[in-house]
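ok so heres the complex, two chains, lmk if somethin looks off
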Amino acid sequence: MTSTALSARGISKRFGSHQALDGVSIEVLPGACVVVLGASGCGKTTLLRVIAGLETPDTGEIWLGGTRVTDAGRNLVAPHERRIGFVFQDLALWPHLSVRQNLEFVLEAQRVPPAARTARVEEALRIVRIETLVDRHPHELSGGEQQRVALARSLVGEPRILLLDEPLSSLDPELRSTLRQELARLQHALKLTTVYVTHDREDASALADSIVEMRAGRIVSITEPKRQELR
Amino acid sequence: MWGWRSSRTFVIGTAGLIFAVGCILPVAYLFTTSLTGIDAAAAALFLDARQRTLLYNTTLLGVGAAVLSTAIGAPLGVTLARVPLKRKAAIRVVLAAPMLLPPYVVALAWMYLGTRGGVLAALVDRDVVASWTYSLPAAIVVLSLVFYPLSMLASEVALRRIDGRLEEAGLVVASPGRVLRRITLPLAAPSIAAAALIIFVLAVSEFSVPGLLRVRVYTTEVFTAFAALYDFSRAIVLAVPLLTLCAAVGAVAARLLGDRIVSARRLTGSHPPLFDRWRRGARLAVAMVILVAVGLPIVVLAREALNGRAGGASLAGSGEAIANSLILSTIGATVVAAVAVCLGYARARARGRVANLADILFVVLFAVPSTIVGVGLIGLWNRPGVFGTIYGTDTMFILAYLARFVPVAALILAAAVRYVPISHEEAAAAAGAGWLRTMRRIVLPQLRLGLAAAWIVVFVLSFGELGASVLIAPPGESTLPIRIYTIIANAPPAQVAALALLQALVIFTPLAVLGTVASLREAH
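and the predicted structre for the whole thing:
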């Protein structure tokens, strides 16, 4: 169990009459990027939310590193204690806080001493190349800049796993392509364990160490594109 | 889409004219009279020590009620928005009920509870709160028990409008308490603050509670100047500081709320239950508030009414007042709803500065104290000629309801109209329908619930209206609130309590039906 960064086993989740997840199991090795691919409503976002602890699965268990965080029907570890970075589809930047405050909120919650916060914030913004936007509010940023702030916010807490829920879906094709390359660069440079949810095959093939394809709440295939490229 | 020559211009113009004459003119008349027609001696009233005491008492009453109401209401709003509770719809209706109860009913219950030898003294064999039953703090407590639902509903709506993702983004890195403190509450703060300001205005506008609990504030002084001293000039001069204060604070509240007053944003969507673990505490808090704010007044009034065995007699003697109240409130609610639906439609379809000004005007007019509306109506209609033929008839009650309740009904209906997409009207226009036909066949059918809600709210408010009614009531005419208020001093408490209880039951019966329906719909 300790050799994987994330292990989800037999996860099922039902909303009323809709079976969102039906016995889903995945394993993610440390530093790997797994892309969960599927059409709208196939359960990929629910899987991400279950991993984050924002939903409780009906059955199954989840391990993060060597810790069991979710057992059948209950969360054993609260979301904020899982050390997860999460980029939401609509980014969810807090509108009343500046870029700096958005990032500092994460560090405050982790009880990082105030003296160390500034350096951590600047480092995260440097990684995503928006150091100059530190005092702006979300509504003063372009779509691409907001995207980078959301990414910086998810990185600043030094998470052990990064979850991304269709983070590029609302962008125009050109910006989408640029940010896709940026994400690939970052993931490679930081060696971050990543689960990336998308319905876009281009995103998947650009980023994935392995692609998990879902349909109607079930995994229908697992492929490893980079390994295929090497062959 | 609709030109100036369409029927829309005529209908909305007529509603606007009624609004101008019925709502704006009495207040404008009072204000201009105070500036032009009052002599210097009366103007000196502004400066004397009594005025300073009045200002101090009035401000303290408003601030105290706003703070205490928010302290009770805002946590309840958070509970309703974020704690998973069973039968939440019914709980919401019950918790909101005190807002529709006439404040003097709660004040009466408080008097019977706390007075020397009252219910509390009988229970614990000691006069625990008798020394401050008739006091400013008591008035603050009573008004807070009446107005906390406003803060509760505003807080709940504000929290439900916050995108759940913003909280989830916080929950993956911080504890629920920190997310509430740093993300949720700051985003909801403008609405909670605006509700507190509106409560401040409603509290300083209230006449019956300080009147019954013997607290000297501007509203009681205006009433005394007019009804006891027959000094119209003094009443007007006393009204001006209060009117200015209410108008200014109401305007600030409207600005704080902005377009949220009539926002059509749906309140559905996922919201993380932030406080799963607080469920038990939340249940306890809700039960306590229901017990104190809803149960206690009813039990105290019932006990007092049954004690004297005079309930039947008092009801028989007040039959005409009860019938008057029911008839006048029904007519008033219907007339107000008819005018308000036109104004609400116009507001909902307005944009930019006009829309903002309309919101401010509606809030400011709703904030005008009832006794000031009464004095304004008398000044305007008590004169020879056409006006004089109306003065002295029951029409004055309807005019009072129009002046007081059209603004709030228009805001309710504007919010309802915003739910009807403008494309529905455009489609009807493209099909060749005129404005009247479009309203009748397309818009109004979609406003059924909003219209019903506005009608019920205005009916309940009219049924409990006292401050303006007691001033403009024609000789020999009475409504139930006037009857209760005038017999308090002379009749046995059992009779007064029986009438107050009847008033509460008339208001609570439709609420009970509403709560049951809401509960069934939620379960379904």
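quick notes: The domain at 7-34+62-523 of chain B is CATH 1.10.3720.10 (MetI-like fold). thats all i got rn
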